[in-house]
Every structure is written in structure tokens, then in C-alpha cells.
Design goal:
Blueprint lengths: L10 H19 L6 H8 L3 H5 L5 H17 L7 H16 L4 H12 L3 H28 L10 H17 L6 H15 L6
Helix pairs in contact: 1-2, 1-4, 4-6, 4-7, 5-9, 6-7, 7-8, 8-9
Length: about 200
């Protein structure tokens, strides 16, 4: 039942409030413990208010993750590709290791293994976006002459992102500056343009 003392919100303000409440609750109870009813109760709205905006709990949670994650996907272009990759990977690893993104994203990943539709949605909205933005940044560096001209960089972008996500999701090893520097060292040993003599 909606809380009658909750402030009345409309439009974008209500949507943003629901997304914030969803992340807050998901961080507490995990994906399996999350429900439309629980979100509605905490937000002080009726279930129909949520169902008008989202068809499922997975769709709602992915939208909530998008709000906080979008700024962590962007590259801050300095002009130097090594510096930009390192800065973005460090920033992303911090986001993935802390609330609200970290615990919620782990829960969604786990649920996606048994939910093919969620797995596709997760890939399209997050993983493919991470790879694409990394690819776009290293392609730009290639066009600027910082990386070897003849290399196909699509697989390189997948390996750069995949190595960090593997370490974060499946191993007990940290995604810290040493891991990131090691990964970048291998990347630049393979793809950096030779120095001009």
C-alpha cells in the first residue's frame, strides 16, 4: 500500500525517484529479493505506477543501473591513449567495486545465467556498450597514429574489457592499478606504433 505521507511526484521526478529506490533496495536484498511490491511500498506509490513505466523487474533494474553507470562508460579524452584507457579502467573498477553498481550488477549477472532474455538485454545495454566505447577510443588513437595502422582493433577491445570483467566477476584477484597497467602493457606491446626515429 502506498505511503500517504510520501511527497507527490510527477513525470521525470517520479521516474528518477523510483530508479533511485530500486537501486537502494536491490543493494540491500539482491536481485532475487527484489519485487515490484517492495519497490512500490518503499517509494510510497501503487504498483500500477511502476507497471505503467516498466514491464518487468529486470527492465526496471537495468534502467536504474543505466542512470548511475552511464558516466562511468565515457572516456575522458586527453589525447594520449594510454592515459585515457588507464583513467577509464580505474574509474570503472572503482564503480564496479562499490555500491550501488557493484552488488546490483553482480546480482543481475548471476540472474542472467538462467534468464536468456535478461542475458541478451544485459549484453546489449551494458557489455556491448563498454566494448563499443573502448573500440571507438582505440580506433581514434589508431587514426591519430598512436597505434599501428594495419591492426584490426575490434578483438583487442573485447580482450581489454573482458580481462578486467573476468578478474572482477570470477576471480579473487583485485582489479587495481597493477592489473590495469599489466593489461595495458600487453596491449601496447602488441599495438603501439613504433617511435619515430
Amino acid at each position: 500500500m502506498a505511503n500517504s505521507s510520501a511527497p507527490r511526484r510527477r513525470g521525470a521526478e517520479r521516474t528518477n525517484h523510483l530508479l533511485a529506490v530500486t537501486l537502494e533496495l536491490a543493494a540491500e536484498v539482491g536481485y532475487r529479493g527484489l519485487s515490484i511490491e517492495a519497490i512500490a511500498e518503499r517509494a510510497g506509490v501503487g504498483k500500477h505506477t511502476i507497471y505503467r513505466r516498466w514491464r518487468s523487474i529486470a527492465e526496471l533494474l537495468l534502467d536504474a543501473l543505466s542512470v548511475v553507470w552511464v558516466t562511468e562508460l565515457d572516456y575522458h579524452a586527453s589525447g594520449e591513449i594510454r592515459e585515457d584507457l588507464r583513467e577509464q579502467f580505474l574509474r570503472s573498477s572503482r564503480a564496479l567495486s562499490t555500491a550501488p553498481i557493484g552488488p546490483v550488477y553482480r546480482a543481475v549477472i548471476a540472474q542472467a545465467q538462467a534468464d536468456p532474455a535478461l542475458r541478451v538485454e544485459l549484453h546489449n545495454r551494458f557489455l556491448a556498450t563498454v566494448e563499443r566505447r573502448t573500440y571507438d577510443r582505440i580506433l581514434q588513437a589508431q587514426q591519430e597514429g598512436q597505434l599501428v595502422a594495419e591492426a584490426n582493433l575490434e578483438y583487442a577491445a573485447e580482450v581489454l574489457c573482458g580481462a578486467l570483467y573476468y578478474r572482477w566477476l570470477l576471480s579473487t584477484r583485485p582489479v587495481d592499478k597493477h592489473a590495469i597497467d599489466g593489461l595495458l602493457g600487453m596491449f601496447f606491446a602488441a599495438y603501439a606504433s613504433p617511435p619515430v626515429e
